[in-house]
Every structure is written in C-alpha cells, then in structure tokens.
Amino acid sequence: MSDALQQEQLVKEIPPKAADLSAWYTAVCLKAELVSYSPVRGCVVLRPAGFGMWENLQKHLDERFKATGHENAYFPLLIPESLLTKEAEHVEGFAPEVAWVTEGGQEKLEERLAIRPTSEVIIGVMYAKWIQSHRDLPILINQWANVLRWEKATRPFLRTMEFLWQEGHTAHATAAEAREETERMLDVYQDFAENVAAIPVYAGAKSASERFPGAVETFSIEALMPDGKALQSATSHDLGQNFSKAYDITFADANQQIQHVYTTSWGMSWRMLGAVIMTHGDDRGLRIPPKLAPIEAVFVPIVRGGDTSTVEKAHELAKGLRGAGYRVRVDDRDYTPGWKYSEWEMRGVPLRIEIGPRDLESGSVTVVRRDKSKGEDGAKTSVPFGELPAKLRELLDAVHDSMYAQAKAFLESHTFVVSDRDEFFTKCRERAGMIDIAWCGRPECEAEVKTATSATTRNTRALQTPGAKCVACGEPATVNAYFAQSY
Ligand SMILES: [Zn+2]
User: Which domains does the chain have, with CATH numbers?
Assistant: First the structure.
C-alpha cells in the first residue's frame, strides 16, 4: 500500500470532530489506544497510552496535594451495609448506584457488603477511632483508588461503572477551617485544569439540588466541551458536621469539651481525561497537553539507501534528552516516515523530531508542533543538536500556552451574559454554551428550566448586579449562575 493511501486510511477511520463529536470521541479513544472495551459490561481497559496520561495527571495533582499538607493512605474497597446507611441523605443519594457483595466463597453473607461508590463512610468510621483530641486535628488524607457505580451507559472516561479517581478526606476543629480547606482544594483543581490540562474552567458553588448527598456546600470546576455541553471536572465538598454526627467523630477541645469535627471531601476522576480529549483533539486525532503526554517528543529518523546513521543519531540525542528529564521515544519501526507522522499525530504527541540525512550533515533536527497546522507560522523549527535540551522545554511550554489560549478563546466566545428571559430559554435549548444569568437560587425555578430546556445550573457565584431579578422567573436574584446542558 502506498504511503499516501496508508495515511488517508488512518485519517478516514476518525470521523470529523465538528460533524459528530460523539463518534469522533469514541473513535479517537479506541484508535489512539487509550482504552479498549472489556468483556465486563460498563467497564473499560485503560491501555498504556491512556494509563500514561493518568499517571501524569496523578503526578501533577499529587505534587499539589503534598504541597498543601496532605498525605496518601488506602482504605478497604468493601463497606458493611450497616455503616453505609447511617448518613441518611448520603445513602439515599447513592443507593441506586451501589453494587453489593452477597456471597463469599460458598457462603451467603450475614450482612451485605457495598463496593465503595465513594469512601466518606469507611474513612469516617476510621477517623472516629483515630481522633480523640484537638491535637489530632487536622487530618489531611487523600486516597488514590477505584470506585464502582452501577451505570447503564458506557462512554470511555465519561461514564463507566468502575473508574479511577482520587478522593481527599479531611477533618478539622472548626467550620471555618473546613470551609477554607474546601476552597483551597477547589483552587488546586482550577490550577491543575488550567496549568496542566490546558483547560480553562469556571469555579463556583453548586446549587442545592446539584449538591453532593450529605454536603453543606459543594463547589465545582466546570469546563465547556466543543458541543456546548458543560463537563464537571472536579468537586470539593464542605460536609460540615453531617458525617461526624452520623459516624460520631468527636474530639476534646482545649477546654476538654467534646465536640464533633468538621469534615470535607474532594475528588477528581479520569473523567478529566475525557475533557482533555474533547477539548483539545482535532480531525487528525488527539492533541495531548505536554504535561499530560506520556511521550513529549517522538523522533522519526529518515533512512535513505539503507544508511542507518540517522537512527543512531536519534537514539543518541534521545538518550541525552532522557537524561535531561524529557519523556521521548525513537520510532525506528519499519514503516515509512509519512505513516509514522500520521500515527503520532493521531496519538497526540506534542512534538515530532525529524532527522534525515541532510539534517545530519547540518547538525540539526526539525521539530514539528502538533498544535499547529501544516504550513502555519512556527509549525516547524530547525534546532541544532546542542540546543535541543533547552529548546524543547521552550517549545513544550509554547504548545501548552497555545492549546490553553485556543480553549480559552472557545470558552469566552461561548459564554453569554443574558438578561432576557426568552433569550435565556432559547440559548439553553440550543446548547449555546455557558449561559450566565442573575438567578434566584430556588430549586423550583431550576427544575422548570431543566424541564423546558434540559439545562441545569453548573455553578454559582456572587450576584454581579445588586438588586437584579432572576432572568428565568422574575423573583429577586441572589446569585449569578452558569446554566448549561451537561455531561
Ligand atoms: Zn428564578
């Protein structure tokens, strides 16, 4: 098969992104070998290319958790039913999604065991044992784990029964400290989204109906996908004393008075990778922001007439770059260069380093940026061998910045400040993007909008125009809210 034909075929297997985001998304997840469907309904296999992105997400988030004083621990997967049912709102919220273990070996269990849908309960029970005095506080623990929620649909990263995430759980002596922690972790998530995943987000408080079951207040970061639907990318919950009262987590304060602690929980899952894929990908496939890319740069040596000196040089340069802390690979497989270019573009590697016989003579390589189109200014740069370690950092930073700028331009051009009721309902129905209105905060009003348009509040912030009326219903407004349809 000719080179041009091979390339054409590779591209054909991915439908155009603008025409059908859903088909494009699934094709990219499978073709870029991020995931495979498994024989287990609702569960996917995370393949090395996908797990590599997850590992980088973990690395960057974990650094941020440690820098804000948190430690990692691990709690059991199974939760006895009698424990799960103690916090009424929490159990009601999760009941439809819980999977139960009813048998072990040959025996039927006396008490059913839930497979964790989240770990507030099991962690709360342990905190009750560990905390006695105000000197034991705060407790700042994070867990990297899998959880299981009984879902019907399967969409890689966005909706699967079993998924990977992190869940932070903290306990504090005062309400103010717990709220401060909740807001600090929301900031951590926003910082990660923007500076690692190159995705701009809106941060704010969830409405009462969208709150985590059992939380006093839930905060979220919300990203906007190319189809105009919002994607909740992380949440941070102030649980007040709801869980500490249900699970009897108390401490003796400085005056020997017994008090209930204040707890928080916060989480980001591999759903964030779904946001990355949809936000940044194009018709050629994935575009991975450099900090999440398992391979930051791939060498493609061009071999002419059986002379493999370009391959040897590529390996030598790659070794030097690895020593300087880069994640690089040399593609010395027996395919044509054109085929390799298309394949690595589809897999979203941020930089491609071409090295041919002429480059070898001039002592330089050609670096090609994945974020730019062919022929675009700055798409190709010639870099002398010796300057490669320094120049690569600069180019990766430039790729990140341009991907972020593109995503931000999209978010801004699809955010609408609306003050007219008809326009509000039309924009919600049309899935125009993030629709920002003065809002009354009433669950009834939110329910009416949802019934009429499928849009819900994504998050809220302080009222921008004091004295404004709710754009949806005309009652006095209390906050500003972003409405959108959502994943
Ligand atoms: Zn209203």
Answer: 21-280 (3.30.930.10), 293-398 (3.40.50.800), 415-484 (3.30.110.30)
